[in-house]
Amino acid sequence: MADYTVEIMNTAEIDNSAYQAAKDLAEELDELADIANPLYVDAINDLSSGPQTVVDVVEKGDASLDIPAQEMMLAALQAGETCLAGSTLDDYATALATRVKKLPPEYGGQDTAPSVCVADSSIALVASSWEMVILSIGATDHHETVEVFYDTVSNLSENSSPSCLGRTELADLAFDASLLIIGVDMSGKSNTASYNKVRDAFEAWLAAIDRADVEVATP
Q1: 130 near 216, Cβ under 8 Å?
Q2: What is the pLDDT of residues 137-166, one digit of tens each?
Q3: Which residue of 25, 90, 96, 106 pairs with 51 in a disulfide if CB–CB is 3.0 to 4.6 A?
Q4: Considering only CA atoms, which of 160, 164, 140, 154 is closest in space to residue 198?
């Protein structure tokens, strides 16, 4: 799914080959859903919805299509989280992150001509939101606090110009934050490694934009 998303997002137009690949992928996933353990059906259906969107638009003869690239990548991430664990999940997430970097810049891909352009207020907002995440660990509203942090970072990433320095690191931070959302359990916390991974990604972004003056809360 991730490889198909990268391929279609870097294609000028949807030709017959791209359509047929989407159709084959959707049909394969639908067949898998029919025989899969019920625990995995929702994840499989979410994976199928992206290529099915491409198939539906082409078969209806529509002239344009807004490809749900981020939703397709998130579905791939959630499928991995559903089916994998431990170091296997970490390896999967790392491999998926390399695919994200291959997307066009406006979807979180690698920059070609970066420059510093993020506002001080945005950096402060991300730092404050992350501090709230750390302070809320174990609280009943922790999951919601993590979601707020993810939304803050994700929105900043989506609205960032392709020429912004640190765009790749910011996309990585949003990706790791999405993993943290999934990892929060009923007790209102995730494993320490997940928080540290987000913190490391946050620091990597700050380093990329040369902001060593910003303090990052420690879990």
Answers
A1: yes
A2: 999 999 999 999 999 999 988 877 666 788
A3: 25
A4: 154
